[in-house]
Hints:
Rossmann fold, 9 helices, 7-stranded antiparallel β-sheet, 2 domains, globular, 15 strands, Elongation Factor Tu (Ef-tu), domain 3
Amino acid sequence: MYKIVKKRDLNSSVCLMEIEAPRVARKALPGQFIIFRIDEAGERVPLTIAGYDREKGTVTIIFQKVGATTKRLGTLEEGQSIQDFVGPLGNPSELEGKAGKRIAVIGGGLGIAIAYPQAKALHEAGAIVDVIVGFRNTGLFILMDELQDACTNLIVMTDDGSNGRKGFVTTALQEQIDAGVKYDEVIAIGPLPMMKAVCNMTKPLEIPTIVSMNPIMIDGTGMCGGCRLTVGGVTKFACVDGPDFDGHLVDFDEAIARSRMFKGEESESTHRFEECNLLKEAEKNA
Length: 286
């Protein structure tokens, strides 16, 4: 069992947890992920490692409460435990030899939690890091202080302009490029359409662009094939070949179509979870 040693709500739908997992913390690196299971009957869910403390033996995860399992995880409190916490899985991000290079780390939605440890590692390695993040509105901001400390320049965009900068992450990236900023590399992490849009912008400019792929995943060992995607015309498995890939080679249209395959089942599972919660609440108040 893996104890929850810290829990913090980052906004109304996003939660941070520190999990006591010494073996995982000992080897974890930015870009890798874990697969957790709440109990023996639960589904296996992958989450990118948002941080780790080797001395304390803890691993930080950040998740959005959108499906049955993540909503259920969000109901657990400090001191409680989950059944399984497997990792670190996947290949760590290639962050060596980046000192002095100018890199844009772009995050959208929950991808910001994944972008943070990469930006932090690059910043500490001596890279000039521009972090560009996008939210729908200011009410969804997360990790703002941490991001500020993990970069040279932080640019925050909102869809509705509620922070004074209206637009998407691609808007800010284009503004930087138009202003004459020369990027050695771009790292984009977030929703598939966002990463596709960033890659469409950087490809004609020949700016190397890395994306972090998080497709449907079950075992995390390459056996099930659920996380397959096409990269440069070749089938790859995100869990063992990634999760980082050359964004200019990823077939985003295929990845987007595959990500929608189980929307019906996901919706039904969430509905059952919410009905069960309502029944428990009614019984408690009876």
